[in-house]
Design goal:
Elements: H1 15-29, H2 39-48, H3 57-80, E1 86-94, E2 100-109, E3 115-125, H4 131-145, E4 151-156, H5 160-175, E5 187-189, H6 191-205, H7 207-220, H8 224-236, H9 253-265, H10 267-276, H11 286-309, H12 320-335, H13 340-369, H14 377-387, H15 391-411, H16 418-426, H17 434-440, H18 442-453, H19 460-466, H20 478-485, H21 490-500, E6 518-519, H22 522-525, H23 529-543
Parallel strand pairs: 1-4, 1-6, 4-5
Antiparallel strand pairs: 1-2, 2-3
Domain hAT-like transposase RNase-H fold: 311-409
GO molecular function, one term: DNA binding
Domain HAT C-terminal dimerisation: 460-542
């Protein structure tokens, strides 16, 4: 490091630019606004650039709000120009005390066929207010962004309060005929959350066994002599595992799964240890180990599925159908287990799963159909296993919905509006407006589209389903495929853009295995709500 003084001479310093750079740094990295008042920071800046006028936390707060307003306008203009619909996810965050915030995030496929998301709002919610008021808050956010007409779906966690909130918003949008398929695809529940709910059922059923194993591991690790004796017994009974036994972090269910799975490999050693150590009284029974081995199978599936759901920040909706169907099949098998302990646990988990499946199975199936590696074949593979003789009828029901959804997209297609556009120009001199004529003839447009397809020309949907499946490979990108094939399937690609952008899961990978909500840090929790929203949203937009 050079210690000599640098002569800056007559160089000009842009105070405003430097101040905004400081504010952007604070937003981007989540630093506390009060850092500008810290003595160490002020000394550092003064030595680095004596000409820079140091600012107060209140000044930097105003700069952050100004940056937020400018960035918000950019996002607003971008959302307005999107070629497709927007899906929304809602997530509740905990804050200091009993405070809660609602985070609204927009998900969409942009003009370059890239799946993107933007945090639109981060607003405080009052636990005492009614669900009707919560739905009004969300509707006002939608209208503030002017996206109520562009909304395709809304993803919430499972729960009765979510049912009421989403139901009210759905009714409002349905009255204005903004929703496709009469809103059948609008209400989406987070797939990762329903898996987490089933995991919590399993943890509750295993609470006594889990406690015994935690205490057993603590006992083994309580002294070097006991640890050495345990290792010796493990070798005698033929334990091949070299894993180090560790107590779990109860707030992370994957950590609990790892602890239980590793302990299961040492079950014979634990059983022998109680013969030598009189003070060791927490050894699980043979029945405990037997039941644990069955439930660990459930955990293993849930871990694998959750890893799939969170392996990427941008996961398209086609990924979820086979994973959810595998859970469905396993639940059916677990319910048949002769051990009432296991079957009753499976029945409890299935109640939560069935609530999810009833709401989301259509959207999952349509998304899978829009994967050229699967099309209708994935439904034809899974549905007979799930429904037996009723499968054919249910597949036909899904296909009717697919055709209806396709026809609704064909009405709004630029291709189908070319002739309409010419007609509006021709009728410009008449007494009625083009908008009124269009509204009255929407039914005719649908009729014309359906009848013309029946008179020789095949629809995009027909051509797509008749062609061979695309080979399965690891590096396949479904959005790239639709980008390349848009000229061949112009209407179906519009439908794919909207469906594949639905957030079937809204949980970030870093919190996928958490038990409980995401938590706002204490520094942000202490700020007034408009500033919190400005910092959270601006950070998301600037990172992009």
């Amino acid at each position: 490091m050079k210690e000599d003084t640098v002569n800056i001479g007559n160089n000009n310093l842009d105070q405003r630019r430097s101040r905004y750079d400081l504010a952007r740094m604070i937003i981007l990295h989540g630093y506390p606004l009060t850092m500008v008042d810290h003595v160490g920071f002020r000394v550092f800046v003064k030595n680095l650039q004596p000409l820079f006028e140091l600012v107060t936390s209140s000044r930097i707060e105003a700069d952050c709000m100004e940056i937020y307003a400018k960035e918000k306008q950019k996002v607003y203009e971008m959302l307005d120009k999107l070629p497709g619909k927007i899906s929304l996810s809602a997530d509740v965050w905990a804050a200091s005390g009993d405070s809660k915030y609602l985070c609204l995030t927009a998900h969409y496929v942009d003009e370059d066929w890239q799946l993107k998301k933007k945090t639109l709002n981060f607003i405080p919610i009052d636990p005492s207010q009614t669900e009707d008021m919560d739905s009004e808050v969300i509707m006002s956010c939608l209208m503030d962004w002017d996206i109520d007409r562009k909304l395709f779906s809304l993803t919430f966690d499972s729960g009765n309060s979510s049912d009421n909130i989403v139901g009210r918003i759905k009714d409002r949008l349905s009255q204005n005929r903004f929703l496709y398929l009469n809103g059948q695809l609008f209400d989406v529940r987070c797939a990762t959350h329903v898996v987490s709910l089933m995991v919590q059922d399993a943890l509750e059923a295993l609470c006594e066994v889990t406690l015994k194993i935690r205490e057993s591991i603590r006992y083994v690790r309580s002294s070097l002599s006991i640890q050495a004796k345990f290792n010796e017994l493990a070798l005698q009974v033929g334990v091949e595992s070299q894993k180090c036994l560790c107590v779990d972090n109860p707030s992370q269910w994957k950590s609990t799964y790892s602890m239980l799975k590793d302990a299961l490999e040492y079950k014979e050693a634990f059983s022998r240890l109680q013969e030598y150590e009189q003070d060791y009284k927490m050894c699980p029974s043979d029945l405990d180990w037997e039941r644990l081995s069955v439930v660990i199978g459930c955990f293993k599936l849930f871990v694998e599925v959750t890893n799939v759901f969170t392996r990427s920040k941008y996961l398209t909706a086609n990924i979820y159908f086979p994973e959810i169907c595998d859970i469905h099949l396993q639940l059916i098998e677990w319910c048949k287990n002769p051990d009432e302990y296991v079957s009753s646990l499976a029945a409890k988990m299935r109640i939560k799963f069935d609530e999810y499946w009833d709401k989301c199975n259509l959207g999952l199936a349509v998304a899978a159909m829009l994967d050229p590696r699967f099309k209708m074949k994935l439904m034809e593979y899974y549905y007979p296993q799930l429904y037996g003789s009723s499968a054919t009828e249910l597949i036909d029901d899904v296909f009717v919905c697919i055709k209806t959804l396709y026809n609704e997209h064909s009405i709004g297609s630029p291709l189908s509006s070319i002739d309409q556009g010419l007609a509006w120009q021709v009728s410009g001199s008449s007494g009625s407006s083009g908008k009124e004529s269009r509204d009255r003839l929407m039914g005719f447009d649908k009729f014309l589209n359906e009848t013309s397809q029946g008179q020789g020309s095949k629809s995009d949907l027909d051509k797509y389903l008749e062609e061979p499946l695309f080979p399965r490979n690891v590096d396949f990108n479904v959005l790239n495929w639709w980008k390349v094939h848009t000229p061949r399937y112009p209407i179906l690609s519009m439908m794919a853009r909207n469906i594949l952008g639905i957030p079937m899961s809204k949980v970030e990978s870093e919190s996928a295995f958490n038990i409980g909500r995401r938590v706002l840090d204490n520094d942000r929790s202490s700020l007034h709500p408009p500033l919190v929203q400005a910092l959270i949203c601006s950070q998301d937009w600037m990172r992009e």
